[in-house]
Amino acid sequence: MINLRHLYYFWTVAKTGSVAAAAERLHLAPQTVSTQVKLLEDSLGTPLLQPAGRRLKLTPAGSRAAAYADEIFALAEALKTSLRNSGEFAQPLRVGISDAVPKNVAYRLLAPVTELAEPVRLVCQEGKLDRLLAELALHRLDVVVADRMLPSTVRVKGYNHRLGESQLAFFAAAPLARSCRRFPACLDGAPMLLPGEDSASRLRLQEWFEAQGVRPRIVGEFDDAALMKAFGEAGRGIFPAPAVLAAEVQAQYKVKEIGRAKGVNEAYYAITAERRISHPALRLVTEAARDRLFSRSGRPD
């Protein structure tokens, strides 16, 4: 293996044109530089420099060696520059987020990653669960966050790690909230905004409506929970959201909680390709979900 120190001394001589000039730049004795270059020539089995008057010039082999040295030390400098920005080399956590998971929940689950002493770069993708699971199977994702366990119909090897669950609550802008005094009876005939059919809670909500003897007027269905909330904020209908986020939803969208669907709970899972979670950032996500997000508020009765 080539000694990089010997190569660097040779490269400096090639750049400056003489041993004396190279020695001055390197803050070394000329004899030290000359000896190191000779050791490199011996290891390569060919002369790299030859006298040209008072200066030295490259032999044909020396020209090739100098060209390689240019690339080697340019890469070394690029590495040093890049490492100054630790974020560039932070360990990535590649997360797939099912579009049925509310963005507020996804944020609260993943935010603790930014608290790690060792920097982690979050790489987030949002999409349909089946597509994200395919990416997980190809090891393009470290984890998929979903509102359901890995479906048995999907031919992907994976493991479910339960993050927690929350009861669902109903929210409405002030005018609608004032008209809903007797919950859940007030939902009968009321304009309702519901998550799309891909949401695991959609069927359970419809069954709950039937059990309560109410038939809301469904005016909108949304795969994007944030868009559903925006319509709710504008007073277009009542909408469900995890009770664990009640305070946040009310503050952000200027709406009021009008009641909770007892017995209708939305659970969240981290689906991984490995049985045991080894990524330190992902371990923090599961711990924070249990200890912070789902510790008290919004738990099912």
Automatic annotation (TrEMBL):
Domain HTH lysR-type residues, every copy: 2-59
Entries under PROSITE patterns matching the protein: HTH_LYSR (PS50931)
InterPro entries: LysR_HTH_N, LysR_subst-bd, WH-like_DNA-bd_sf, WH_DNA-bd_sf
Keyword set, alphabetical order: Activator, DNA-binding, Transcription, Transcription regulation
Gene3D superfamilies: 3.40.190.290, Winged helix-like DNA-binding domain superfamily/Winged helix DNA-binding domain
UniProt key word Transcription: yes
Keyword Transcription: yes
Top-rank lineage group of the source organism: Bacteria
Record-stated family: Belongs to the LysR transcriptional regulatory family.
PANTHER family: TRANSCRIPTIONAL ACTIVATOR PROTEIN NHAR, TRANSCRIPTIONAL REGULATORY PROTEIN NAC-RELATED
Protein name according to UniProt: Transcriptional activator NhaR
Source organism per UniProt: Thiobacter aerophilum
